[in-house]
Design brief:
It is found in: Secreted. The chain is an alpha/beta fold. The protein contains 14 helices and 16 strands. The protein has 2 domains: 295 residues, 3-Layer(aba) Sandwich (Rossmann fold); 108 residues, no CATH class.
């Protein structure tokens, strides 16, 4: 055995502490054997592996040996990977139409991204989903700590799954997870350059409706509202002049700006910012001083605050009602046993944990995108165009700061002979960035437009024009 092979084995032995994995063949709610290869497990990170990060891994339904590997970051911070898995891009979905409050039935998702890729979903940061810590200190996390923990997690996972080390790797995520995506990609890049094992086949990254820089993303909400005919020209022009184009966290001493923002706030406060075309439902009272949205993208969908309308044909449907299925399912003892959840590690599972000890200590990640634009990677940035949480105008603004050349100008892209959205492609030497809007989609685009989003991913991974 050569030294490289011996080193890899030694590294695997050193890294293997605090890890476990199980192949899941059946699940409560699904009749028969699962037609997919699903694995769950824990990987220890941090000091003495005090943090145990839980994951779901699904092999590609096409060709797992050659299809790419997506390392997926759900948003929040604190929203469970199960949310993305079940409601967006995973191969399984709950039967929400026939849900009666008991254990929900599980259906197959014909538009799962596992049709074209292997996907590794992680419950990050610690305290999210089924991830836990062995010490109280271990529950403290931040953007920078989560980045390093997730990178360590991926190194350990790949060492335990050497058959996927050579697969094309893309770090991917949405909402607040989009902030971590380039940070983790940078850790991988630096680790590869330093010769750390395993050497990962990083090709680029994917971000959906993501946070990049609040000074850009949040400030674009009012210009976006104007574009969408939610506020009048008069209101917008007055605010633009009075606030000098700075609408987010305005100067409290600028009385003219504050007065100009008042009618705007009245116009948009009754809207569902995650999907403008859907009804706004009561979650929790908005924080004073903001415009009714949580600036860290935490979703106020705790089942304790869920507003369930009265029954009947005329009742108001709210998308958050769908999420009740996840609370019932993930808190069922038989489900936890089937997923091999370690007993006593967490109490009630919540879709989005809003009580994390988490420091958002990396305000902007634009400089990471700038560094990658100087290297030969490929990037996909997509946005549902009816999302006012993280409007599509934000990425367009920070992308312009990267000094790229337009390679394919703004044009529609199609699915089933219909316009599915609009796309714009940039290049700089060997670097390419594809920007995509998904027509009619909200904050978590694949949840609203699954057919279109799978087509988008498939074409992009196949290096076909959208």
């Amino acid at each position: 055995m050569n030294w490289v092979g011996f080193s890899a084995i030694l590294l695997l032995l050193l890294f293997n502490n605090g890890t476990s994995q199980s192949i899941i063949k059946t699940l409560p709610g699904y009749s028969g054997t699962l037609p997919i290869k699903l694995e769950t497990g824990y990987i220890g990170v941090g000091e003495n592996d005090e943090v145990q990060l839980f994951y779901y891994f699904v092999e590609s339904e096409n060709n797992p040996e050659t299809d790419p590997l997506l390392f997926w970051m759900t948003g929040g911070p604190g929203c469970s990977a199960l949310s993305s898995f079940i409601y967006e891009i995973g191969p399984l979905a709950f039967d929400v139409a026939d849900f009666d409050g008991s254990l929900p039935s599980i259906l197959l998702n014909p538009h799962s991204w596992t049709k074209v890729a292997n996907i590794l979903f992680i419950d990050w940061p610690v305290g999210t989903g089924f991830s836990y810590a062995n010490t109280s200190k271990g529950y403290s996390s931040s953007d920078t700590k989560s980045t390093k923990d997730n990178y360590t997690f991926l190194r350990k996972w790949l060492l335990n799954h050497p058959m996927f080390i050579k697969n094309r790797l893309y770090v991917a995520g949405e909402s607040y997870g989009g902030k971590l995506v380039p940070m983790i990609a940078m850790e991988i890049l630096l680790g590869n350059e330093a010769g750390l094992q395993p050497q990962m086949s990083l090709q680029g990254y994917i971000i959906g409706n993501g946070l990049t820089d609040p000074n850009i993303d949040f400030n674009e909400r009012i210009p976006y509202a104007h574009r969408m005919a939610l506020i009048s020209d008069k209101y917008f022009e007055l605010a633009k002049v009075s606030c000098d184009g700075k609408y987010d966290n305005p100067d409290p001493n600028n009385v003219q700006c504050l007065l100009a923002l008042q009618p705007i706030q009245e116009c948009i406060n009754s809207l569902n910012e995650a999907q403008l075309l859907e009804p706004k439902c009561k979650f929790i009272a908005p924080k004073p001083g903001d415009f009714g949205w949580d600036q860290t993208f935490r979703e106020g969908n705790s089942v304790d605050h869920l507003f369930l309308p009265t029954s009947g044909h005329d009742r108001l449907w709210c998308r958050t009602q769908n999420y009740v299925t996840s609370y019932v399912w993930a808190n069922d003892p038989a489900v936890r046993e089937a997923l091999h959840i370690r007993k006593g590690t967490i109490g009630d599972w919540t879709r989005c944990n809003k009580s994390l000890s988490y420091e958002e200590n990396q305000e902007s990640v634009t400089h990471y995108h700038k560094i990658f634009s100087e290297k030969g990677y490929t990037v996909l940035i997509y946005n549902g165009d009816h999302d006012m949480f993280a409007p599509y105008t934000g990425p367009l603004k920070w992308i312009r700061s990267l000094d790229l050349t337009v390679d394919d100008d703004w044009r529609p892209w199609h699915v089933n002979a219909q316009v599915a959205g609009y796309t714009l492609k940039y290049k700089k030497n060997d670097f390419s960035l594809t920007f995509v809007t998904v027509k009619g989609a909200g904050h978590t685009a694949p949840e609203y437009k699954p057919i279109e989003c799978l087509a988008m991913l498939h074409r992009w991974l196949s290096i076909w024009p959208l």
